[in-house]
Amino acid sequence: MIVGPKPLPPLYHDFRNAERRLPQHVGKPFANGKKYLWVASHSCCSGWGNVMQDLILTAHLTHISGRAFVFDDYLWVRGGPAYSEYNGKLIPAHVPLSAIISGPLVGEKWEDDDPTPLSISREHFQKICPRPYILHGEQIRAVHGNGASAQKIVETWIEFLADIDDPCVEIPGESGNIFHPFMFGSKEEMLPIWPNLSKSPVLTRLGWSSLAHSAVKSNLALFKPSSHHGKSTGEVFDDSLSQIDGLLAVHIRRGDFLEHCENLGHWGASFLAFNQFPQSSDPWESPQGEEEQKMAVYRRRCIPTIQQIVDKVEQVRHSRAGWGLRRIYIMTNGNTIWLSHLKEALLEVYAWDSVATSRDMVLTWNEKYVSHTADMLIGQRAQVFIGNGFSSVSSNVAMIRQAKGFPPESTRMW
Questions:
Q1: Which of 73, 319, 379, 382 would you call most buried, defined as having the most Cβ atoms within 10 angstroms of its Cβ?
Q2: Please, which residues bridge with residue 39 across strands?
Q3: Residue 396: partners with Cβ closer than 8 Å, 6 or more residues away
Q4: Chain Cα centroid distance, residue 89
Q5: What is the pTM of this model?
Q6: How far apart are the C-alpha atoms of 242 and 383, rounded to whole Å?
């Protein structure tokens, strides 16, 4: 539900202007040997979950190289007009990254003893580096080869970058992603990097934008008991590792996943890598048997029915990690009629204090177009999270929870 008038979608000028005013955008850009890496081939033009997983690894690689990370907008299209369309609705085509996340990736400080130069915007990079050194991704891929792990890819890139004296390096857009999209679904390719990535300030200092915080703060009544409102509201929506006690957050995909899950089954896909940590209570096991038997497993774990959702929630509520759960928040793109049936089914089995969904959030016009960040912040902080193992949004929430020290048994999958 949206409050207020409905003009054109916001373009977040305040956030863009704040990015332009970053202190590192003033003064001598190459003082003290500062160097920069602009990866123009970064992921774009898809859902935030897919873009975010590429963003984290690209920033991690850049940080290890000792160069400043160059951040870009969240792009629905590269270049072109300010607006695009999704499902027949007008959306902003270029969202300043600081309207989605906060932390060093959008120019805030690294840790006190970290000498890495502060991140700068693409706009500023192109101003100070009109003739950058062009490094084509094909050169590096020829060295690490196909099927290389993310860790091997990072190590190979670091070796190449170490031999480049030019302070300005650009990976052109036509080079393709440094980390190919399908590797995020391979635990063999992705999980070897976790020991290093989990300790990286790229991840440990990652936060959500002020819009995510304000959306959560103004909707606390949906998932936080009234006794915790008032002066303590600042506690619930910060990016610390502390959990929201009593809250079960569940990620339920509908819409495009009705078809996508069928395709995943026919492809024989597995969970995304960060939904397959070794300590997982719900590991992915490739289904056996006839085709329809296999598809039944994919449907249960990817697009579960209302009864299957209720059964899983009850299983989790009776687990050790589920002790004290009293409220449910449903991160979803499901329609309101289906969600009303789901709420009724959940409340028939157990007297939850509240069952709320993304559709119940009261949002400002600015918050509406980055509302996924509020969902992810809630999922990150919930006492228990049940995610969709095939979803990059769930994967990113699971990754952050793991990095923030949440017990592995508190992060579950359908």
A1: 382
A2: 171
A3: 49, 52, 53, 56, 274, 376
A4: 23
A5: 0.94
A6: 9
Q: Which two tokens stand for residue 381?
A: 């902080």
Question: How far is residue 186's CA from residue 275's CA, in Å, rounded to a whole number?
Answer: 10
State CA 362 to chain mean position distance: 22
Q: What is the pLDDT of residues 53-87, one digit of tens each?
A: 999 999 999 999 999 999 999 999 888 899 999 88
Express each pLDDT in 16-53 by its tens digit: 999 999 999 999 999 999 999 999 999 999 999 999 99
Question: Two tokens at 327?
Answer: 């409220």
Burial class of residue 67, CB neighbours in 10 A (0-12, 13-18, 19+): buried
In sequence order, the 6+-apart residues with CB closer than 8 A to the CB of 131 are 168
In terms of C-beta density within 10 A (0-12 exposed, 13-18 middle, 19 or more buried), how is residue 390 classed? buried
CA 348, CA 342: separation in Å to the nearest integer? 10
Give which of 270, 250, 256 is closest to 397, Cα–Cα: 250
SS3 275: helix
Pair of tokens at residue 74: 């969240």
Under 8 Å between Cβ of 287 and 297: yes
Alpha-carbon gap, residue 145 to 87, rounded angstroms: 38
Give me the DSSP letters along 93-147: SEE-GGGTEESGGGT----TT--PPPPEEHHHHHHH-SSPEE--HHHHHHHH-TT
316, 250 contact by CB (below 8 A)? no
Q: By the 8 A CB rule, do 316 and 322 touch?
A: yes
Q: Which residues pair with 354 in a beta bridge?
A: 327
